[in-house]
Design goal:
Mean pLDDT: 91
Shape: globular
CATH superfamily: Phosphatidylinositol (PI) phosphodiesterase
Helix content: 25-40%
Order of helices and strands: HEHEEHHEHEHEHEHEHHEH
Number of strands: 9
Strand content: 5-15%
CATH class: Alpha Beta
Radius of gyration: 18 Å
Distance between the termini: 27 Å
Number of helices: 11
CATH topology: TIM Barrel
Structural class: alpha/beta
Largest sheet: 8 strands, parallel, barrel
């Protein structure tokens, strides 16, 4: 369910929260993830890189080398996916099957990590690279003081195990848990109320259910869908201090590619705070002009 540049990056321009000291070649990580994602009108829009990249030749999705490449080009959020092996090792992989993005075969959960660690990743054009499938543990260790992750937890992977790993790596301040419905969001909040949660809010009733379940506004960043957004919903969420993620990946990215990248500005003008995209450089190019 990712941002000035050359080789030295500045944090999202206009952010007022206190920033931790970090490696200057990467996105700067905030002292408070809750404050960082608190809506303020003065904040510039952000880029969330879908699957951490993958649309460039020889840079596979869900790959640390791809994360490194894109996060050095722009301040961004890295969205990545978590599957679990037969021996309960959490790895970064979008599909249930190994076939599309690696040299492996069959379903992830039918393979041990010992088997998977020997495989090579393929880019989205089918080219085999020398890059390896990373574990969630390794990704979180790599990402410390470099990026903010949004973690898409697949159905075969328990939220509890992911949250335990986030806490084990002290990654609470740079890892957001993605949920797709109220039940999942409630489950995550009950496991650890100190985490920021990406919640699906397509209409007012979705917010009301989450709020009635006791999830505070400060714990929410709202995913508002993959279609042209409803400005009234964005305004409502902003009034609650909640930032909005629009999934331009897929159809809206394709429209921008066909019509011109200025199409993204339409959504910035409507108040979209974060663009989840397969075209991070194009989106950032528009944000950087404003």
């Amino acid at each position: 369910m990712a941002k000035k540049l050359g080789l030295i990056l500045l944090i999202f321009v206009g952010f007022s929260c206190k920033i931790s000291q970090t490696n200057k070649n990467y996105t700067l990580v905030p002292d408070s993830i809750f404050e960082f994602f608190q809506y303020e009108k003065s904040k510039k829009a952000m880029v969330s890189v879908h699957r951490g990249g993958g649309e460039l030749k020889n840079l596979p999705e869900n790959c640390l080398e791809s994360f490194d490449y894109i996060s050095k080009k722009m301040p961004c959020i890295i969205e990545c996916d978590i599957e679990m092996t037969k021996d309960s090792v959490m790895i970064l992989m979008h599909d249930k099957s190994l076939d599309r993005t690696s040299t492996g075969k069959d379903l992830v959960f039918k393979n041990t990590f010992e088997t998977l660690r020997k495989l090579k990743l393929k880019d989205n054009f089918g080219n085999v690279t020398d890059y390896k499938i990373p574990t969630l543990e390794k990704a979180l260790k790599w990402g410390k003081n470099k990026v903010i992750f949004t973690l898409d937890v697949k159905k075969t992977t328990p939220f509890k195990k992911v949250i335990e790993m986030v806490n084990q790596q002290n990654a609470q301040n740079y890892a957001v848990i993605i949920t797709y419905n109220a039940n999942e969001a409630i489950e995550v909040y009950k496991i650890d109320p100190n985490l920021l949660i990406s919640v699906s809010i397509m209409q007012l009733s979705d917010y009301e259910r989450l709020s009635e379940a006791g999830i505070p506004d400060k714990n929410m960043v709202a995913f508002i869908g993959t279609r042209e957004p409803k400005p009234e919903l964005i305004d409502f969420l902003h009034n609650k201090g909640i930032m909005c993620i629009l999934g331009v990946l897929g159809n809206l990215d394709k429209k921008a590619a066909a019509r011109g990248d200025e199409y993204y500005k339409t959504f910035i003008d409507q108040g979209v705070d974060i663009f989840a995209t397969d075209r991070p450089e194009a989106v950032y190019g528009i944000i950087n002009k404003l």
